[in-house]
Amino acid sequence: MDASLEKIADPTLAEMGKNLKEAMKMLEDSQRRTEEENGKKLMSGDIPGPLQGRYENGCAYFHEEEREGLAKICRLAIHSRYEDFVVDGFNVLYNKKPVIYLSAAARPGLGQYLCNQLGLPFPCLCRVPCNTMFGSQHQMDVAFLEKLIKEDIERGKLPLLLVANAGTAAVGHTDKIGRLKELCEQYGIWLHVEGVNLATLALGYVSSSVLAATKCDSMTLTPGTWLGLPAVPAATLYKHDDPALTLVAGLTSNKPADKLRALPLWLSLQYLGLDGIVERIKHACQLSQRLQESLKKVNHIKILVEDELSSPVVVFRFFQELPGSDPVLKAVPGPNMAPSAVGRERHSCDALNRWLGEQLKQLVPASGLTVMDLETEGSCVRFSPLTTAAALGTRAEDVDQLVACVQSKLPVLTCTLQLREEFKQEVTGTAGLLYVDDPNWPGIGVVRYEHASDDKSSLKLDPEGEKIHAGLLKKLNELESDLTFKMGPEYKSMKSCIYIGMASEDIDVSELVETIAVTAREIEENSRLLENMTEVVRKGIQEAQVQLQKANEERLLEEGVLRQIPVVGSVLNWFSPVQASQKGRSFNLTAGSLESTEHTYVYKVQGTGVTPPQTPSGTRTKQRLPGQKPFKRSLRGSDALSETSSVSHTEDLEKMEHLSAGPEQDAPEANSPERPPGAPTPQEAEQAGALQNGAQRPEDDRPQVEEPESLR
């Protein structure tokens, strides 16, 4: 077996080595041929593959770090604009500071990375805001950019480089690259483009905004991410005619190891072929278009890229317009709403969208969803198949499943949002409960029980309150309801609270709040009773010891001193025995008092003591159908039930009410003083007595059922 494997492995390894040698030879021949023709260190001419004919006369630089290519381009721009930079160094930059323009929607940390790599101070960065009035709010404001350029020129600065986006990192919007190119040509600024939408250049149809990127000075491509190829370097394409400056900037190298960086990418592209590359990118774009078209038909879902038909990124979020108010969940402040109210409802909606995103990620893991926070819209869910579909194997069926999951979660989201205000009102009107405003919690709300010794002005840890809330959480989870309960500290506080999760439309909020209040009160009373009982038992033991010692002294006085002498006492006890009774003490926990044990020794029976009264419960006795879970609304009058089911449930409720009300109606008849005429026979008397006892038995049981209602 081993010999056969070796025979198979040897030709395979030999063939692999042969292919690698041929690939290296082809790369060296191509490199040598282009150097002889154009006098450059790196391959020049048209970029082969899907971009052929679109980015003409360009060179390529391959790098592992995606941002490394842009840093090299910045070095090239500095050497091109500052002729004496090689000799004078930083003194040239100090006299005329360079300015690098970045969009406000650029990748986080990009500007800081460039300054660290180039050794430039942070004032050399200029952050260009996005549109606020017209156009997409994630596109660079071209008019404002021109204003900034003019101001920098007036201050003696040198506009050096502009980084534009062909698909922002967040929502995939594309800047107006055509207008930006004209502006850069006017002021002599280097234009660099990056973004996920550059992958669509491989397709037959490309939007005009993305197609304008082929006229830029440089661009960064990440084919490994787009095609799902691991360990494949990124490529930065640029146009420059001076090979000496590209060598100084680090874009070209004479080291053979640097030339091998392109080998994994070349082998991968040869394996996929042109058709395979186009097919993967086309499939990702079709998935995004399929999801976008499906979500347009779903209520309470807002798509943030409706005007970007060419974008392979779909960003959506849940929203709901409350009746009688502005669509506050769109984060648009109304004229009659306070800023604090708008911010609170904005945070509430963000919490629901984060919950929705996490649920969808668990239900459809092949979708590759991510949850992100945008400055204007808030928390959103992003679907970017161009960066995840090839690695996760996302299919059209996964998109359909994703849409179905969104539709299934919408009733829970809308109902939870509607029940929040009702829950707040119920908690506010219930004694002993405090409503905690935590908009970051994706649920009905947060509540805290205020016990008798709770210090409201202090935010320190409350051991007694934590104990009560821990017991309350355990009791609520034992009810096996559809709600989820958690315990955690309040925001910026160390006190414990009960967090109530998402809810459906048939949740009875009043019953929920009442159950929380009564259960917490019972836990507090039981805890206090246990503490009081401990103290009573301790005092009772001390009192019993004192009484037993006193009784022992009295016994010595009654018997006399002579009976205490060993020999004399025995003789006296033989002639004149002492009729002494066994005396002791027992502690009655119910009454909290000491009792004598004489009754126990005389009658050989322990005393029952005083029977404690039944502890009244504050909860209403709510009638539930078999299998109905707690906190569910009554099914009577529900329009969602069918005719047969509603009749059967109504009959069950009427039977239960008749059984509970029947003894109350029969009791007055049994206690009526009227008697039938004539003397009854003994048999009739026994039957009447049996009937009367049978009617009085529920009469005796009735106060135990109605006593909590009367105490309420």
Automatic annotation (TrEMBL):
Chain positions covered by the region annotation Disordered: 607-712
Bias type Polar residues, positions: 608-620
Gene3D superfamilies linked: 3.90.1150.170, Type I PLP-dependent aspartate aminotransferase-like (Major domain) (3.40.640.10)
Composition bias, Basic and acidic residues: 649-658, 697-712
Coiled coil region boundaries: 13-40
Domain PDXDC1/PDXD2 second: 311-417
PANTHER family linked: PTHR42735, PYRIDOXAL-DEPENDENT DECARBOXYLASE DOMAIN-CONTAINING PROTEIN 1-RELATED (PTHR42735:SF1)
Similarity section: Belongs to the group II decarboxylase family.
Protein name as it appears in the record: Pyridoxal-dependent decarboxylase domain-containing protein 1
Taxonomic path: Eukaryota, Metazoa, Chordata, Craniata, Vertebrata
Gene this protein is translated from: PDXDC1
